Records
---
Amino acid sequence: MSTSAATNLVKNWILEQIESGELSEGECIPSEFDIKKLLNINHDEIEKAIHELVTEQVLSQKSGEGAIVKPKQPYYYPLDELVSITKMIEKNGQVAGTEFISLDEEVVTNQEMTILNLDENALISVIERVRTADGEPVVYCLDKISTDLFPCSDYNSDLSLLSAIENNVEFKITHADTSIESISYEPYISEILNSDPDDAMMLLTQTHYNNEGVPILYSLNYFKSSLVKFRIKRNRI
């Protein structure tokens, strides 16, 4: 991507408008005609500047609509630490809450039997809930654990699930294998999270282990991409 001085001039002008507060998050930037009139820059350079700022995630643009200042996600979730969603929300100065959708005991499926290393026909607690910040939905959570370790009846509060489990057992949950993928609109979950059809979600699928490497908890957490940004520190080897 080769950027000319004229393109940089337009980019810097838009960035200055954002930094000064002249342009707010979610607000449309001036039209290309207005920018051309103000800066005396040709249309192609303005279009390229806007395209680059969209690529750099400073601006957001939908097909057929003008560019807007992309709203910043208020929450950071570190992928290199085993941090509860409660702490993520509280770190942003908000009250973490839980809306329970269902608490059931079910017979383990073949997939869950393999993931959690359980016997055939074992029972698992299936906990379906939404984590909220000041009452607004942020994350949809589906958690599964052996009823021998954690019966559904033992969980009915805003306490972190990891903490609630550790209050029931004599070991600590020390690490988790995690995968992350982008999920487009999914009617059931998106509706629960009050997500727009264009609002993607990030799915964290995690298997949590104790310090002896025994699988304890299988979790699927759907984060609203418009609210949560993920962070990880990577070391070069």
Note: The chain has a mean pLDDT of 90.
---
Amino acid sequence: MTFRVAIWHSVFAFTLFIILVDGVDAKNISQLPHIERVDTRINTLMEEGHFPGAAITVIRAGQPLHVSTHGMANLAHEIPVTTQTVFEIASLTKQMTALAVMTLVEEERLSLNDRLVDWIEDAPPAWDKITVDQLLSHTAGLTHRFERTEHDVLLLEYSRDDMLASAKSTSMLADPGTDWNYSDQGYFLLGIIIEEVSGQSYAEFMEATFFRPLGMDQTHLLDQRKIVPHLAQGYAWSNGKLQRNRRVWQFALTSHFGVMSSLDDLIRWEAELSNPKLINRKALEATWQIQRPFDTGRQCDTWGYARGWQVLIVNGRRILNHGGYSGTAYIRDVDTGLSVIVLTNREDTSNALHPLSLGWEAAHAADSSIPSDGYRCWE
């Protein structure tokens, strides 16, 4: 084991217990069962899952109870993760895009029943019956990936028009409203709609509506040309070792996966979701409503996809969660106010531990009624 890889096992793994908003102090923290031991388990899971670095927070009612950073943001330069390390949050972007759409709906600038073709010129006939709400819930019948490739390899640069042309030429998987298929294409098209309705680029709209007013100064949309202080290097676990993940593509519109952020900024985001002052509460709550229920096993009352979130209902409690391919996870129990955010720099693969595993372990540390390995609603 090299020095660089060994570092994240112990030396630079550390915990920050913080005194923050409105009376969260060491006494409050110490009263939480098992919260003090969460880092030991997280470090074990990081080793099992080959995560180079991670930043994790457990939050109750918008107030951080536990913040910990582990391992390396950059192995080559031996730079440890901090709460200011900027990660690609990947598909955690979708809950932000869904909130943006629902905000426009609440402002009566858009309708959930609007057809996609109402907002996009020269749309293919197959899109005639697709609605905004179907795009939000992945029930529009669209495929997942849609960007043009050469011999199955992504291009280095995609303009907005290139991406839209690729979306228009991609075959449908199902008739709108008849099936559920997770779709980056659908959330890209929601970004087009946001731009058409607002008259701003997606990046401008998100920054003006959410990020800047909330003081999220490290949060922005993917731009490979931008010099980003504290940016984490991404990695992949492949053939039994860590490798750089080579995510160097430039996309002009990334409403499906493109937000970059730090743990500090996402703590601000969660504080606003927990107690909305800027965000429209009705718009927020609409993103929690299950639109496509899935078959449910014994562990959950029901579960399904809402708008930008997967939702589990367990003993009447609504628990939202989502993962991001770049190595991120977000869990929100909207009825108890408990939330967990996990940011890592090891992308998700089928042969490696999912970042949600770290999130469920942290949630269990704060609330023992939540299984440490999460809910298996399908069993």
Note: The radius of gyration is 20 Å.
---
Amino acid sequence: MAKEITASLVFEHLPARKPDSHKGSYGKLLCVCGCSQYRGAAALAVEGALRAGAGVLTLAAIEPVIQAVGARCPEAVFLPCRTGEDGGIDPAEGERILQAARGSDALLFGPGLGNTAGTASLLEQLGESAGCPLVLDADGLNAAAAMPSLPRPANLPLIITPHPGEMARLCGVTTAEINASRESVAAGYARANRCVVVLKGHRTIVAGPQGEVFCNTTGNPGLSRGGSGDILAGMTTAFLCQGLDPLYAAVCAVWLHGAAADRCAARLGQYGMLPHDILYDLGTIFANSGR
């Protein structure tokens, strides 16, 4: 039976920052996100990661995405990439991105990349060779679903963050079948693939490779908008790159994401709140907890 995620569990695993720390103390994160059609997804993932404490964040993206993200997040570093025929990153940039990944503490791959052959080619190049822990979200999961097995860096952590439709594609079943057995599906997939599964939705499930299963109780229907998952993916990768255990990086991100959304709904209402609004409330939660 799943264990409920609580505030005390989250802050037990999320330490206060040390007075003598610096940006290098909190990890180097590489995000491979965004295309001409989905520029906002990259911006939300990047800001989610920065607001969750990542020390140095580099975004590998095409120039229109970089312009959009740079206007919102001047703290980010950029690895400009050529645009491919499908409006995303040219797969020929794979080697440059791979070199950046090998100098990083975690890699986020997928938000807003586009469900294209170019995304699939990049994942084939990066997935098993990145040399750092990997978080797969959105179009990264769509690309992975078409591969014989989940791509993962050798002997390094892998976190996947599917919604029920993406989980259905990964498992080769219907969305209805996923929703009928969310806890057992997530747990079984995590064990079989030696990864952490964040199965999103009402009462999000977090499952680990050793049979651990957690259920989240924070969050509300105001999160039911495009972009919410991009923020969650960024937060998860930020905690991972700061050295949290992969399972608890996901657990902390899921609870905090939902708790911030609950505060946001109290301010703006579930109809009126937007995904980027919850970042203010996330900061309030950190401030109130001494983080």
Note: Residues 26-281 form a domain with the UDP-N-acetylmuramoyl-L-alanine:D-glutamate ligase fold (CATH 3.40.1190.20).
---
Amino acid sequence: MAHDHEGQRVSRRRLFAGISSIGLGTLVAACSGSDTSAVTTSTGTTVTPQATTATTGDLAALFEGAGTCRLTATTTQGPYYFDADKVRGDIREDRQGVRLRVAIKLQDSETCEPLKNAVVEIWHCDAAGLYSGAESLSKSGGGNPPGRPTGAPPSGGPGGGDGGGEDGGSMDLKPTDDQRYLRGAQVTNAEGIVEFTTIWPGWYRGRTIHIHAMVHVSNERVLTTQLMFDEKLNSVVMARAPYSAHTGRDTFNDGDSIYQDGMLMKVSEDGDGYVGAIVFSADSDKDGR
């Protein structure tokens, strides 16, 4: 995608706040590139349209077989989620790593129809295992509660299994620094698709390599899940710089507490990097189906 408003602080909450004054269709068109003029929300935020670089046809082969109309597994959001106020497609900023395009197709879990005009957020650690907004907490031994040994994995954080269960790590983080790399949100188009440009995530103790994702429909959180990668590809990427400087990886897919086969992205080479695709089936009306 072209990113005329990269770095602009536009929260997903303010996206929905602007709906009443300009209409969701117009707002989403501005975010997804189907319009050519900037619009201003009721909060005074100007959103410049983006152009789409990959068509649905380009991604069809990757989406084929990537998922079925079965409710996507919900997981803990982990300890490092917050609304990063970043509506953008390229979330790399200054982070170095292997380029990764992430394409997500969102559909309703009951009807299998595309869910358009939904907000999809993703966030993940960098090649060294650090999260923006929580760099000190996500360093080894950081953020430990009183009585926990120095150097031990933080409770509910990297090395702590991302909270370990649905209740653990479920509260939004108050950022401890002003970094926002590797975080962003996009609005699904008519086919229910969003696309991000990022880097292959790194790793930290106690967790396999993963990306967090959250879906909002009408300002309701309807899905929180995670994305994983085939271990053969993880091994190839981790052998390259800058990942190779971070040694001692201790947790792989088969030993991860959250991993499920349905979280695996379908990945192929894409120039000097990779492109991965996955289908999310979300319970948009939150009736459990």
Note: Helices lie at 12-17, 19-22, 24-32, 56-63, 135-138, 231-238.
